[in-house]
């Protein structure tokens, strides 16, 4: 029989990025915790691949059990058992900054349920699906970049909840590379890699001399703040609705599209556009649609990336005209940018599961390193 939550140990989500659905205590040391999930503007495509919570009142060394439940959802209008499985063990931290993966997990595919068996590292500790990267992290990074020659910041619009949407610029070169991070709020690895990329640019004067770098550093600050998954407040997917124009319901996409359009109208080029994502077990690069004039660039870029810690699970492939053919409003960013402006846009997915090239589950340090590798690979691709 389920019991109400007990007072000795408390479970909270009152911090940036914190998120849980239902919470039920099975015993003094065992809880069932629902993944809150989100649905789109039509009440479809439920995604439940984010949870983050804090435990208070534990005893260091105490054995605790947390069952993560309410996992089933829908992807591209097809029901599934959920993205949280044995391949996606969470991370734990005693200070909210240094994270390590939990190895004591059990997955029940029948329910489905991910059981976490935790030895409390301290009286207070945090658990999350992946190592969080918050708006606070971004502002600390901004403070470091502000000292970099050529660094500029532009506020290109507001989110639904009124947060600033930022566009950063580094460098003064004739060729221009656009970078986009964190279209989906759960994909914190995108932001860790983004920080690594930006720190490389701050430290590499040659890359700033040869190229102009335009960067959307964090595309969904609302979702990151509330512990969202992949939709904005109105349920619109910030990567899957690039062929729908609605400045009220989708101010984030509108601001980003307008920034690119303004740049093009000024007579400047976009020589490479890149958006970085995370997924559970796949890793790949998606290039401009078949038949575009950018096949050579795509092949060079893919070859350069294979020299990094990027470990593709499939060959380079070229985007279809939409993520859901025959359904309007389902173009992702690279499809939308190619459709509207014929830009050489790319989208990468990086797995959060075990990476054979790294021989471990990837963490923040791996993402930071990859970010530096990424911008150097881009530069070599455009030589």
List keywords for this structure.
5-stranded antiparallel β-sheet, Immunoglobulin-like, 8-stranded mixed β-sheet, disordered N terminus, Aminopeptidase, 2 domains
Provide an overview of this structure.
The protein has helices spanning 135-145, 188-203, 205-210, 221-226, 251-265, 295-305, 333-341, 364-381; strands at 10-12, 23-27, 30-34, 52-56, 63-69, 73-75, 78-80, 91-93, 100-101, 105-108, 113-119, 125-128, 152-158, 164-170, 175-181, 211-216, 272-279, 284-287, 317-318, 345-351. The protein has 383 residues and is α+β, with helices and mostly antiparallel strands. The protein has 2 domains: 10-128, Immunoglobulin-like; 135-381, Zn peptidases (Aminopeptidase). The strands form 4 sheets. It has an 8-stranded mixed sheet with strand order 13-14-16-15-17-20-18-19, sandwiched between helices. Strands 1-4-12-8-9 form a 5-stranded antiparallel sheet, with no helix packed on it. Helix 1 packs parallel to helix 2, helix 2 (188-203) packs across helix 8 and helix 6 packs antiparallel against helix 8 (364-381). The chain starts with 9 loop residues before the first strand and ends with a helix. The relative contact order is 0.13. Mean pLDDT is 96; it is low at 1-6.
Summarize the structure.
By secondary structure, this protein is an alpha+beta fold. The protein has two domains: 10-128, Sandwich (Immunoglobulin-like), CATH 2.60.40.3120; 135-381, 3-Layer(aba) Sandwich (Aminopeptidase), CATH 3.40.630.10. Helices cover 24% and strands 26% of the residues.
């Amino acid at each position: 029989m389920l019991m109400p939550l007990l007072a000795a140990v408390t479970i909270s989500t009152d911090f940036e990025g914190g998120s849980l659905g239902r919470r039920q205590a099975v015993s003094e040391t065992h809880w069932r915790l629902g993944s809150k999930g989100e649905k789109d503007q039509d009440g479809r495509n439920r995604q439940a691949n984010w949870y983050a919570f804090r435990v208070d009142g534990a005893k260091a060394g105490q054995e605790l059990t947390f069952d993560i439940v309410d996992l089933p959802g829908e992807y591209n209008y097809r029901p599934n058992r959920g993205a949280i499985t044995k391949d996606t063990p969470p991370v734990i931290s005693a200070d909210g900054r240094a994270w390590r993966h939990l190895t004591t997990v059990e997955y029940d595919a029948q329910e489905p349920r991910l059981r976490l068996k935790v030895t409390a590292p301290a009286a207070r500790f945090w658990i999350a699906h992946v190592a969080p990267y918050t708006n606070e992290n971004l502002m600390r990074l901004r403070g470091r970049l502000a000292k970099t020659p050529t660094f500029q910041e532009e506020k290109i619009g507001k989110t639904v909840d009124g947060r600033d949407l930022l566009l950063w610029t580094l460098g003064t070169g004739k060729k221009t590379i656009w970078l986009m991070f964190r279209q989906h709020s759960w994909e914190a690895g995108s932001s860790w890699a983004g920080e690594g990329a930006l720190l490389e640019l701050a430290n590499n004067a040659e890359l700033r001399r040869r190229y102009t770098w335009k960067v959307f550093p964090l595309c969904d600050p609302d979702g990151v703040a509330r512990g969202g998954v992949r939709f904005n407040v109105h349920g619109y997917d910030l990567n899957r609705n690039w062929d729908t124009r609605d400045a009220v319901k989708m101010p984030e996409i509108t601001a980003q599209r307008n920034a690119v359009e303004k740049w093009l109208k000024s007579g400047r080029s976009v020589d490479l556009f890149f958006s970085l994502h995370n997924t559970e077990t796949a890793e790949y690069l998606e290039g401009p649609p078949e038949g575009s004039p950018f096949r050579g660039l795509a092949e060079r870029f893919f070859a350069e990336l294979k020299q990094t810690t990027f470990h593709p699970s499939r060959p380079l492939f070229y985007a279809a005209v939409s993520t859901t053919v025959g359904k309007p409003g389902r173009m992702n960013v690279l499809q939308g940018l190619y459709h509207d402006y014929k830009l050489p846009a790319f989208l990468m997915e990086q797995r959060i599961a075990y990476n054979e090239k790294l021989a471990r589950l990837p963490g923040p340090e791996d993402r930071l390193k990859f970010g530096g590798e990424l911008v150097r690979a881009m530069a070599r691709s455009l030589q």
